[in-house]
Amino acid sequence: MRHLSLAAPLIVSAPLLLSALLLLAACEPAPPRSEPVTLVFKHARILGPSDPLPGLVREFEARHPGVRVKSESLPWNTDEQHQFYVINLEGGSPAFDVMMLDVIWVPEFAQARWLLDLTELLPRAELAAHFPAAVEPATWGGRVWAMPWIMNVGLLYYRADLLARYGLRPPETYEALVAQVKRIQAAEGDARLDGFLWQGKQYEGLIVNLLEGLWANGTRLLGEDGRLFPDPARAEEVLGFLRRLIDTGVSPPWVTAADEELSRRAFGDGRAIFLRNWPYAMDLFELPESRVRGKVGIAPLPRHAHGARGSGATGGAHLGVDRRTRHPEAAVALVRFLAGAAAQKTMAAGVALNPTRTALYRDADLVRSHPSLPLIGALTAAARPRPVTPYYLMLSSTLQPEVSAVLVKVKTPAEAIAQARRTVGYMLRDVR
Amino acid sequence: MTPRRRADRRAGLLFLTPALLALALLTVYPSVWVLWLSLERRIPVFGVARFVGFSNYEFLAGDPRLWNAARVTLAFTGASVALELLLGVLVALALSEQRRGRRTALALLLLAWALPSVVTAKLFEWLYHPSAGLVNFLLGERSLNWLGDPHLALPGLILADVWRTTPFVALLCYARLLTIPAALYEAAQVDGAGRLAMLGRITFPLLRRVLLIALLFRTLDALRAFDLMFVLTGGGPASTTETLTVYAYRSLFQTLQLGFGSAIGVIVFALVMATAWIYLRVLRREGMAA
Q1: What per-residue confidence (pLDDT) applies to A429?
Q2: Which CATH superfamily is domain A37-152+314-381 in?
Q3: Domain locations along chain B
Q4: Chain B residues near residue A16 by CB distance under 8 angstroms
Q5: Are strands A155-159 and A296-299 parallel, antiparallel or unpaired?
Q6: Which of A162, A190, A354, B101 is at a distance of 20 to 30 A from A271, taking alpha carbons?
């Protein structure tokens, strides 16, 4: 039996070795010239009653004979999508050609040289049709790295019926907002009616709310010289204001755990007067079964004492091309088709994904089915992108616990700002 | 050693080779790689990759966020494992005494354990919902801000973890209880032992080993806790639920600081290894591990 003892490990490891060799062989690029071009398009699942993407992809294929598009969906949340891209783009062979990107990733991916430079591949006028706040994050280092595709913007929702009952107009300042909340709450006498809902959970949405606060107070997160909190006094005011909203009962204590959905549902149940959220909420408020149907208005975000006006932060998705794609022309054609006016209109009509093209906000068909579109368009035109920098995620991730600590009174605004500056200083020591 | 035994030994080693190779490939290689990364400042996005020695560890030694994460991890582990063991034993005892519907009870228990932790997290998100949640409904007028209060968020997560993993402990213990011969209890009864005496003198001593195993598994799992906090609180508020693995994940995959994140990973690794080592020593004293 002894002779077997030698052979057995070999027998066991042979299939392993074989499969390893096969894997290696599979990685070898072997571009067949005659076969049709296949593009892999990575995108998040479009939720809703009807996904317009398969139809759009078929239309593209019909217009480009010889090009096939394989749609592959990404994980369900943005953190996992980011992780997926990083792992696949940093090492390994290109597994996809066209990718849907969160706007805040574009400068990072461009800096990492993962994206194809689209500057020369797009006609000059092509980007001019999109909102500046969508084009800005697609541009880094003077080059264009992605096409704007889906638009998002921070808005103030208000209960039009309640405001009308007391002869009030949507507030232009946060001071007025607080006064209106107090007045309406006192007069309604409903302990279950909250004042102002926003997103205070320790996550990216909290930083969006912070940014909007900073802009509303005439300051910003990153100064011209790249310094964090260039005007700490005004930043402290904003942080202090957010905390006071909770202290004084204008916002319920649970906003410190609220994300978009939690706050949207409470407002949709008719249990709040004001809400900061994205445009998608309006479509849900207007559903036939909604309790606040026909009672909700949209207004620009208010401003603070030192600000000229409030601006919503923008979000949304861009389309980029993997730098190592073997079919750059076809990939760029797909990007241009999907970001084109016809495709964006289809998406806006189907699942209410707002377009990045300004003209569509005046499109008669779209306005008929989505009456709030022109107003949202006007507010998007005045909106601002989050800081356009490759280290935005680093900044945000460092700031999230600090801002959260202020909201739950673990730190004072000054302490949080000082700690954030220290940590960011260490993180960015080498990169700028 | 006889030639025969030596040959056996050699054959044994040869048989082990594929397994050892696979193990080396799958665990040792990545571990060494992470260890190496932790000594680097590596941020691929910016093309930064240089050796910095222990600089990452030096920063972490004075990093309040790391110390906070360590505290959170230990508090979570201590509280959740203690509660799970206590409740697990109680549930197992109740099960073994139960006369009817044992299968149903077992199936229900398994359900909680079989749910993916992300699903559990979503479930508790609704249970803890500030206005519509069942937990606050049961509490009546006093609506608690479970996930948004720095004092309640961690207990809330511990509760969710206890709900999810108590069945694991209960089933292990229950299986052990089934193997205790009834004759032991009969003999004790003949000797005039009461129920409490039987519990203390027969049941608990015989459960001891299986409890140690459960303790080992649960502790090592809890030290690496990630899903619940990641989904429910994102580590907040004020990082009161940010465990070491959540901090490592954020540094590695969200901010792409591979060197810095790896250093946190190495710290988690060291913590888990140290705990495993202590447990294994205890188990060896019990004569349960080679």
Answers
A1: 78
A2: Periplasmic binding protein-like II (3.40.190.10)
A3: 72-255+274-285
A4: 18, 22
A5: antiparallel
A6: A354
Residues of B in Cβ contact (< 8 Å) with A269: 131-132
Residue A19 contacts B, CB cutoff 8 Å: no
Considering chain A, tell me which residue range(s) the CATH 3.40.190.10 domain(s) occupy.
Answer: 37-152+314-381, 155-312+391-427
**Bond before B237 cis per omega within 30 degrees:** yes
pLDDT confidence of B137, banded at 50, 70, 90?
confident
* pLDDT of B170 over the 50 cut: yes
Name the architecture of domain B72-255+274-285.
Orthogonal Bundle (1.10)
Residue A19 in this model has a pLDDT that exceeds 70: no
Whether the CB-CB separation of A191 and A278 falls below 8 Å is answered with no
Chain B residues touching A262 at Cβ < 8 A: 129-130
Q: Least CB-CB distance to B130: which of A254, A404, A410?
A: A254
Of A175, A196, A199, nearest to A185 by C-alpha is A196
So what's the architecture of A155-312+391-427 in CATH?
Answer: 3-Layer(aba) Sandwich (3.40)
- Residue-level pLDDT at B289: 57
Q: How many CB atoms lie within 10 A of CB A21?
A: 10
- The stretch A385-414 carries a mean pLDDT of 95
Higher pLDDT, B20 or B141: B20
Determine which of A10, A111, A140, A201 to mutate to test the interface with B (most B C-beta atoms within 10 Å). A201
- Torsion sign, CA atoms B214, B217, B219, B224: negative
What average pLDDT score do residues A219-245 get?
95
Q: Is the pLDDT of residue B138 over 50?
A: yes
**Residue found by looking up tokens 């030596």 in the block:** B6
Query: B5: burial class by Cβ within 10 Å (0-12, 13-18, 19+)?
Result: exposed
CA atoms of B47 and B45, how far apart (whole Å): 6
- Residues whose CB falls within 8 Å of the CB of residue A210, separated by 6 or more in sequence, listed in order: A221, A238, A239, A242, A399, A403
Q: From CA B156, how far away is CA B164, in angstroms rounded?
A: 13
Q: What's residue B141's pLDDT?
A: 65
Q: Is residue B244 predicted with pLDDT exceeding 80?
A: yes
In this prediction, residue B288 has a pLDDT band, given cuts at 50, 70 and 90, of: low
Cβ distance A95 to A29 under 8 Å?
no
The alpha-carbon gap from B172 to the nearest alpha carbon of chain A, in Å, equals 34
Burial class (CB in 10 A: 0-12, 13-18, 19+), B131: middle
Which pLDDT value is given to residue A29? Answer: 46
Q: How many CA atoms lie within 13 A of A69 on its CB side?
A: 28
Sign of CA dihedral B131, B136, B142, B143: negative
Among the ranges given (A6-20, A405-419, B137-151), the one the predictor scored with the smallest mean pLDDT: A6-20
Asked if A93 reaches chain B (Cβ–Cβ under 8 Å), the answer is no
pLDDT higher than threshold 70 for residue A21: no
Of B11, B21, B237, the CB nearest to A2: B11
A3: contact with B, CB 8 A cutoff: no
